[in-house]
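Exercise (ungraded).
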Amino acid sequence: DQQVKQNSPSLSVQEGRISILNCDYTNSMFDYFLWYKKYPAEGPTFLISISSIKDKNEDGRFTVFLNKSAKHLSLHIVPSQPGDSAVYFCAATFSNDYKLSFGAGTTVTVRA
Amino acid sequence: DTAVSQTPKYLVTQMGNDKSIKCEQNLGHDTMYWYKQDSKKFLKIMFSYNNKELIINETVPNRFSPKSPDKAHLNLHINSLELGDSAVYFCASSQDSSLYSGANVLTFGAGSRLTVL
């Protein structure tokens, strides 16, 4: 039973425009959320995270928004660059969970 | 210098065989993990060890046996391989078992693609 869902398997965006990736979760205990980025033939790498006490966290071109009532979070990339082309995984955890639960990923392609 | 290294990167084998995947981390982390990425692309936790002690054992067939000889190594042995075991297996490590902070994130290896024929 998947508790973290990324319903868009792929996203294509023009260079310089905004990429918006969405993630939904079902487990109400989740209160810490992360995004990981993965290039082909590499492992996922940590990108940005947000605690449930916040509704927004920003790091350079990357911003994560959290809507707890809707059990929804999104990752905004502005402006999108060709090097952002990768698979983005949403993940969630809670205190004493000791693991991350991942979504299936969204493949982002940034067109020049 | 690779932080989390897995070997082999690719493994093709016949049904019924036994195989192992090795993982080593040089980050000085206390906690190591095995995740499986199946055909649906979900990354699912299989096992986690903290200082050589098993702390997570998800619903995984007994044919899968992790072994942690020391906290820098976590190996995965699979007996009697089945077609459904075909997947990419990722090893990961973290400073400790509490992932409740951006200061303690999972660092993944590059993955080991297992194909069972």
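Further reading is listed at the end of the chapter. For now, observe: The CA atoms of residues 32 and 51 of chain A lie 5 Å apart. The mean pLDDT of chain A is 95.
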